[in-house]
Design a protein that fits this description.
2 copies of one chain form a homodimer. In chain A, strand 3 (174-175) and strand 4 form a beta hairpin. Chain A has helices spanning 41-46, 48-59, 85-92, 101-109, 114-129, 139-149, 201-207, 212-239; strands spanning 9-10, 22-23, 174-175, 178-179, 181-185, 196-200. The first copy, chain A, is flat, with a radius of gyration of 21 Å. The first copy, chain A, has 241 residues and is mostly helical. Chain A has 2 domains: 9-209, no CATH class; 213-241. In chain A, the strands form 3 sheets. In chain A, strands 1-2 form a two-stranded antiparallel sheet. A two-stranded antiparallel sheet of chain A has the order 3-4. A two-stranded antiparallel ribbon of chain A has the order 5-6.
Chain lengths: 241, 241
């Protein structure tokens, strides 16, 4: 990381606060109050739903959209999922053992340290500002992001799956009742800045639990079979002429 | 259709029975009792869950897996969805207007005539018997299916999306708590024998609401971009050597 961060402890309000110590993510030696999400200050003002999404996707597990006994808890801090089963059960009332294996695996896959989540939040913020039609950040946020990620390229954010450019206004487009843009992972089991980005909802769904390279290989193998069958069909058509 | 069917009316028990007249689908001039699903008789005995799936997928809409006011009705006869909004509301208590547009569209997309549903059921039965490791049908069912579809090719059923061969035992494999094989549509808005088949669950999810040709085009455009970026990356790497 190019700039040094303040890192002073900040008190939080979640029931899981005993697990981690929240930190100030402003630059070291800053003036004024400490702040955990200084990079989101501007988006919180002008696009609060986008800012909330960045925070939520970076730090929370996504659970099932519906409630049921075996669906597991919805939206809990990712670092909580690093705890062993018995601690989750005894201290937080989360009974991993009673969940279906696939729900359990999905929850555990979302586990990440507080530090990784905070790095992801900052990276997603950069990705937002680098979208087509994105708002222009105030100079201090722009410089902060450049300081942390050594880049700031307007109009460069692509869907990490289909590599098409993403437009900031897509955050407001609802499709099937959900946001058109989702947070996505090149490898769904790694929550770190280099592995996270935005994707179209359909692209994210199509990728499923595969890594991007697995997904591309899968597409190549399908298209090879499609093309082969097309040629066989052509051959048959040719023969019957 | 190569063989003529009996076609005599059969009485049904559903609350929507006034809408359609169920028919006998045995061959014309058959002896013994009329039967709506003669082609499923054998599967009902040896693989009842597969037979039930064929019947259900051919004739019912799939609704949401969970219950909520706007999720719409779950599993109702596809031909019911051909009725206008006011008839659905007044005669069947289904209030289409109160559903979200996407739920409404999804339900209406599943609409199909009784005749199409019955043809799909017979075609899916043929597809089951043509899977690898499928049970061998009794001669009368084999001949009936050949009579209707002019083919019977063991080990020939492929996933309609990825074109890989499907194995009958996959019906018993559960993945993410659901069947590994799903009924799928080359064009999701047409429920007819030539447009329906089986697919892997992941393939069906990846295809989403696109037609197969749209889905293949989408994959090709993604891979073209992936390859292009890969080359650009190679170029940059080359330059910095």
């Amino acid at each position: 990381m190019a700039i040094e961060l303040c890192g002073k402890p900040i008190s939080g309000r979640s029931r899981y606060e005993t697990l981690i110590e929240r930190r100030c993510y402003r630059s070291a030696g800053h003036t004024g109050k400490c702040d955990e999400y200084p990079f989101l200050a501007h988006l919180l003002q002008i696009a609060p739903r986008v800012a909330a999404k960045v925070k939520r996707d970076a730090t929370k597990t996504t659970g099932a959209a519906w409630k049921s006994d075996d669906a597991g808890p919805n939206r809990i801090d990712r670092w909580v999922m690093l705890l062993p089963d018995d601690v989750l059960k005894n201290e937080f009332g989360i009974n991993i053992a009673s969940m279906k294996p696939q729900v359990r695996a999905k929850l555990r896959d979302k586990a990440a340290t507080y530090e990784d989540c905070m790095d992801v939040a900052a990276m997603l913020t950069l990705n937002v500002y680098e979208m087509t039609n994105a708002p222009i950040p105030p100079p201090e946020i722009r410089d902060y992001l450049i300081g942390r990620f050594e880049r700031f390229e307007p109009n460069s954010t692509r869907c990490i799956v289909c590599l098409d450019y993403l437009d900031f206004i897509s955050f407001d487009l609802a499709q099937r009742g959900r946001a058109h843009i989702e947070t996505a992972h090149a490898n769904p089991r790694m929550h770190s800045p280099s592995n996270v980005g935005f994707a179209h909802r359909e692209c994210n769904i199509a990728q499923g639990s595969s890594s991007l390279s697995e997904f591309y290989d899968w597409m190549r193998s399908i298209l090879a079979r499609v093309d082969e069958h097309q040629s066989q069909f052509d051959l048959v058509t040719e023969r019957t002429k």
